[in-house]
Amino acid sequence: MRPTSRHLLLRCGFLLSLCWLAPARADVVLSAKSLSVPGVNLQGVTLRLGEDGAGALSVSLHAERADVPSMGWRRLSMNLAGDLRRDNQLAWTLAGNLKLASAPGGALSDAQVKIQISPAANSLLIDLSQGKATISGALPLDQPSHAQIHLDNLPAGWLQGLLGTIWSGHLTAGRMGAELALDLRDPGLRSSGQFSLSGVGFDTPSGSLAGQGVGGTGYFSLDSSGGPTQIDVDTSLRGGELLLGPIYAKLPDQPVQLSVHANAEAGAVDVTRLRVNDPDALQVDGALAFDAKGALKSLQLDRLHASFPAAYTRYGAAWLDTLGLHALQIKGSLDASVDLRADAPRSFAFSTDGLDLADSNGRLAVDGLRGGLDWAVQGERPATTLAWRSLKFYRIDNGAAQSHWQSRDGMLSLQQPLEVPVLHGQLRIGQLDWRPAAVKGQRLATSLALTGVDMAAFSRAMGWPAFPGTLAGAVPSLRWVDDRLELDGGLSANVFDGFVNITRLSWQQPFGPSPVLNADIALKQLDLGAITGVFDFGSITGRLDGSINDLRLVDWSPVAFKASLLAGSGGRISQRAVNNLTSVGGGGIAAGLQGAMLKLFKTFGYKQIGLKCTLQGTVCKMSGLEPTADGYTIVEGSGLPRLQVIGHQSEVDWPILVKRLQDAIHGAAPEIH
Q1: Termini Cα distance of the chain
Q2: What angle do CA 202, 204, 208 make, to 5 degrees?
Q3: Which structural domain range is residue 36 located in?
Q4: Which among 63, 93, 121 is the end of a domain?
Q5: Which residues touch 573 (CB under 8 Å, ≥6 apart)?
Q6: Cβ distance 603 to 574 under 8 Å?
């Protein structure tokens, strides 16, 4: 917009001065090694004047190199050819063709030009056109540093030179129009006026500041005459997409008011005033700053009011996706403020009179959220209350609760124990201290107690068969260290008339797209009859002990563990359970007379059952009670007929093993690979 106009006005004024002073006869050639006028440097200049036979002068001007440092135009070459005429009022008119090489965006690479200079009217008029783009300018001869300029349908890329002098951003698409005033200074310039945008796109080296398909109208002022460049913009935007650090906006077709005051220097941009008004979605007052590469340095939102679901659809979806919250269903409103510096928060606060939200994968759902939180890295903040009617976390339903919080010297703390109903039981959070500004080390510490949780309800929530029993446990210390939750103590589930104890539990990136869970699990005296009844595996009586150590789940799928299961006190086993255990181990029943006799009985006595599996990657290394000549023993029988089940496959692909277990539970004929 402004760089093209300023450049041409200075250059054309210089050209006409040469023509005015040149002798009015044919075949005149003037040359200069270098010429300078304020703001423009020309090198290798050649001017040719000749008669065209119709009362006009033919003009040809060539500059091997043209530099306009204030606009970022360097090392351009220029060729101007046309006819120069003077009328009865002593006004001069030059009409012809202008070609610039290497100008940003291909600006004026093949443009038609008309220049009129009138001493009587004290004016210089310039008209340029290339394709659909037109530029018109007017300036007084006695004040050539001032101009009035009209731009129409100008490619945005033509402004890249000026943009590059104040910012690291790059214009990628779109067109602009403007009516503006321009004052040249030494150094810099001042300009102001109104503008229009159509399909404008831009980006930065860091990718944190970008736009695409942006349209709108507004007013601007720019002052680069001293110190950092001062920029003011008041605009009404329609459509397109904007990325401002963590804020991604998908602008609606109706007007969104944007007001900005910014200081730009050496590529860095400091937006000291940012106001956004999207009436039915978002209102913002604040500031933000970007470094020379376009990376966010600070974000301070003094006021943010969001109305959902419009605010989520237009401004929040992309940011919440990065937190693992996808395709939210959200309604209500929220008031907030935030101060983020160098990727670490200094303060935040939010409050709501009513907010409901649920993500698409069932990880989080809140109904009737009311109240808020208020935290700052220094000093003490007022106490707040946050309550909800119901809260679902990883598909586990929690009942209504009310929590009380206060921030002191950077720590946000629960002021009294919080009791939350969960699956007919209760979760009690005794204390909770959170340091949001901690970049490394311990961020959160809490203690938990779980009592009376119904395992059948828990199983249904997790999509498992309904286990009988209750889940309880005490966690004297749970810490959030770096990106990992660490549990001291353990959880104990009273299931199948025995116990399952979980220890060494840690949870990495719990809110990320692929959370990682590590734990050790111990099984003590579980009733095999109850277990096999739930899973429809075939009947086995007796008691089961075992362990699943070094368990590692990625996005809730196992990738590693060392499992050992032992029913060592004997019992009875059905023929179906024998067949299913055989299929799991990829083995068979002892051959001969014993194998034939087994078909006559529905249940058999056993002395012990043992099965081990070590998962590494996608392969499970199998073993059992003891090795045999051609495998390992899974079932050691007792009494007559004597039963012995042998496993022959020492390595099984984990997906195949899972399928065998699923087939066994659902009564399908297992496949042996």
Answers
A1: 72
A2: 105
A3: 1-121
A4: 121
A5: 538, 539, 540, 541, 581, 603, 604, 606, 609, 635, 643
A6: yes
Total tally of structural domains belonging to the chain: 2
Q: What is 229-275 written as a DSSP string?
A: EEEEEEEEEES-EEEETTEEEE--SS-EEEEEEEEEETTEEEEEEEE
Q: Are 425 and 360 in contact (CB under 8 A)?
A: no
Q: What is the mean pLDDT of the chain?
A: 85
650 lies in a domain? Answer: yes
d(CA 490, CA 502) in angstroms, rounded, equals: 5
Among 103, 120, 135, 132, residue whose Cα is nearest residue 12: 135
pLDDT higher than threshold 90 for residue 167: no
The tens digit of pLDDT for each residue in 52-97 reads: 766 778 999 999 999 877 667 889 999 999 999 988 888 899 999 9
Q: Do residues 420 and 430 lie in contact, with contact meaning Cβ atoms separated by under 8 Å?
A: no
d(CA 147, CA 184): 9
Q: How many CA atoms lie within 13 A of 238 on its CB side?
A: 9
Tell me the pLDDT band of 10, cut-offs 50, 70 and 90: very low
Q: What is the pLDDT of residue 666?
A: 64
- Please write the tens of the pLDDT for every residue from 318-340: 888 777 778 899 999 999 999 99
Beta strands in 141-208 (DSSP E): 146-155, 170-184, 189-203
Asked whether residue 354 is assigned to any structural domain, the reply reads: no
